[in-house]
Amino acid sequence: MSSELSQNIIKNYEEEYEKVPEKNKLFDWLNDLIQILFPYQKTSEQEINSRIQSSKKLFQHLVLNVGITEENAEQYTAVMYENLIQVHQDLLQDAKEFLKKDPAAQCLGEVLHTYPGFYAITIYRLAHLIHQKLQLTYWPRMLTEYTHSKTGIDIHPAAEIGVPFLIDHGTGVVIGETCKIGKYVNIYQGVTLGAMQVEKSMQNIKRHPTIEDHVVIYANATILGGSTIIGNHSIIGGNVFLTKSVDPYSIVYTKSDAKVKNIKTENNPINFMI
After folding, report:
1. Are residues 115 and 196 in the same domain?
2. Exposed/middle/buried for 94, CB within 10 Å: 0-12, 13-18, 19+?
3. Per-residue pLDDT of the chain (274 residues; tens, 9 = 90+)
4. Rounded Cα distance, 67 and 20, in Å
């Protein structure tokens, strides 16, 4: 029975999977790279260059382990680290947007090292780079799902997100695969940018919304559909549910019907549904 099980496992692997990187080593490379890009303490250029070289070696080792030839592994590594310059500049713009917009942010270092929204954006931008430039199967999703497990923020690595971008608080945010998000977009916890329906036949179709520049989307708003466009400079209020486009400079909100009563003078029982 043990032999039969092992044969089934091997057969299934050969038929359905490509080789994947070792998760722990991939995540070690990721977190080490983030610390190189945003060091906790001031360090020398020599030390940074030394750590970059070590990071390159680990990345190339990971690439080799998934069956890429040595020559191609060197090319992949060169492309990855050449593009890191732009990714680093983009992430600094993202961080400055947090500092500019969040009254609770005291300094840039606080954003870089403690904000879950910025951590999720950092890993998204690295995963998006791998998805776009290297097209390594599994890697981008492994990285963004790692972020998902750490922060509760779910960003598909294929989504296109402009610079700067801000996710405040972040828990419960979902950004789908075919989303297009412009510059200076701010979103809050619980926001879903999703599809109207989930069908395999829609795999190569734009299923998720487009968010234009300078849009703010407040907590728990849901925006669905590949043809849904949120016009630039719009504000989407909390708990809004949208499946249709809105023009630029729109304000979209739901009307609250909250009632306030005094417990001491209220005679009728209040039944809360849970």
Report:
1. no
2. buried
3. 578 888 887 877 766 666 788 889 999 999 999 999 999 999 999 999 999 999 999 999 999 988 888 999 999 999 999 999 999 999 999 999 999 999 999 999 999 999 999 999 999 999 999 999 997 878 999 999 999 999 999 999 999 999 999 999 999 999 999 999 999 999 999 999 999 977 777 778 899 999 999 999 999 999 999 999 999 999 999 999 999 999 999 999 998 787 888 878 877 765 555 4
4. 9
Helices (H) and strands (E) in the chain, counts: 7, 14
pTM for this prediction: 0.91
Length of the chain as a residue count: 274
3-state secondary structure of 35: helix
What is the rounded distance in angstroms from the CA atom of residue 65 to the CA atom of residue 163?
33
Q: How far apart are the C-alpha atoms of 38 and 112, rounded to whole Å?
A: 7
Choose one of 97, 121, 154: the last residue of a domain.
Answer: 154
Which residues face 154 on adjacent strands? Answer: 174
Domain count, the chain: 2
Alpha carbon 172 to its chain centroid, in Å, reads 11
d(CA 8, CA 15): 11
Helix axes 23-37, 70-101, angle to 10 degrees: 50
User: What CATH number should be reported for the domain holding residue 41?
Assistant: 1.10.3130.10
Asked if the structure places residue 267 within a domain, the reply is no
- The parent domain of residue 71 ranges over 1-154
Contact 187, 166 (CB under 8 A): yes
One-letter identity of residue 155:
I
